[in-house]
Each structure stands twice: as C-alpha cells, then as structure tokens.
Amino acid sequence: MSHLQKLEPEIISCTKCSRLNNWCKQVALEKKAAYRDEDYWGKPVTGFGDEEAQIVVVGLAPGAHGANRTGRVFTGDRSGDWLFRAMHRAGLANQPESARRGDGLKLKNAWVTVAVKCAPPLNKPTPAERKKCAPFLRRELEMLSRAKVIVCLGGIAYQAMCSELGVSPRPKFGHGVQVAAGGYTLLCSYHPSQQNTFTKKLTEPMLDKIFTDAVALTN
C-alpha cells in the first residue's frame, strides 16, 4: 500500500470541522430530487489519479451533489464534466466522462484533489476550516514526489497553494497567471463552475489552453 493510499482513510474519517461534517451528512440525507434513489457518500473526499503525476490539479472543495454524492472529486457534476473533458483532450485522462466511482476513469501523469476535503455550505469554507484541512493537502504534495505543475482552479485553491508554499506577497490571481513557488509552477485557471461556464467567463478553449500549458511545463 502506498503512502497516498494510507492517507485516504485518515482523510475520510476526519471530524475536525463539525459544521462541514454535519453539512455533508445533511445533504446526503436530504439529497437532490434528481438523485433521490442514490446513496450519497456524505464524507470527506480524497484526491485520486496517477501517483507518479507531474501535474496536480487543485480545486476548492467537493460539490454538495457531485463529489459529496459520488465519493470522488470532480465526479458527477458539470464542473467535473468540463475538467475531465479538457484533461482527456490533453492526454491526461483516458475518457472525458466522470459519472461515478468505478466508471473506468483513469488519469495519466495527473492527480486531482481539493483544498478542503468536505463539501461546504454555499461552497464557502471558513478560513479556520481551510486551515484545519491544509495539512492533508501538504501531505499529498509531499507524497507526489514527481509533481512539477500545480493547476489552481479558482482563487481559493490558488490562495491555499500560495499559503502552503510561502508565496508572499501573492501575485494577483488571474486566468493563465503562472507563479514559480517552492520548486513548482502554479498555473491559475478560473474554476469550471456553472457560474463561470454559463457566463462564458471560462470557455472550453480557455481551459484547454491551461492543460496544454501544464503539459508543456513538464517537458
């Protein structure tokens, strides 16, 4: 068993943030009408992918009816649909879909994770919750010894990585911004949330460019 595999049960059993634990369970009980016949995961969610990855993708947190339902980050919601389509086009995923755990999705040279492991109400973890969860992200990075590029999906993921790597002052977040830090290149992208994709703040060509650049930076 690898170090990352040993970390998984520790993340899943974490109860440091009662507000987040309770919210995950509440959502799992109440469910969304479209998923009323499904069993929700309702617990913290771990990262997944290629343990030899050079590219690490960091998002904010599990979606309430996405990863909090399926038990795999960016799986079962539209954000994940956008993400894995782009990763598939970049040669980092074997398929463009992310419907559920066990659906055959495999990542190559990429690891996908989140800064906060529990789904937060309104997608807004508190600073204290983010701080309590930070050691898990730190340990993931330590175990991903070949990582070179960290794709930060959204401002909070970027803030988390800058804090973790001691970047101060922190350059302003923006789509396509690159920051050298702690032996990594941080590559910023707008989050593929419905708010950003519906309004065209983030388009598929824009997201494709992020992963084209990420792959180029590993060469």
Keywords:
single chain, alpha/beta, Uracil-DNA Glycosylase, subunit E, 6-stranded mixed beta sheet, 8 helices, 6 strands
Write a short abstract of this structure.
Helix content is 39%, strand content 12%. It is α/β, with parallel strands linked by helices and 219 residues long.
Description of the molecule:
By secondary structure, this protein is α/β, with parallel strands linked by helices. The protein has a single domain, classed as Uracil-DNA Glycosylase, subunit E (3-Layer(aba) Sandwich), CATH 3.40.470. Helices cover 39% and strands 12% of the residues. The chain has eight helices and six strands; from the N terminus they run ααββααβαβαββαα. The protein has a six-stranded mixed beta sheet, with helices on both faces. α1 packs antiparallel against α5 and α4 (78-89) crosses α8 (204-217). The two termini are 29 Å apart.
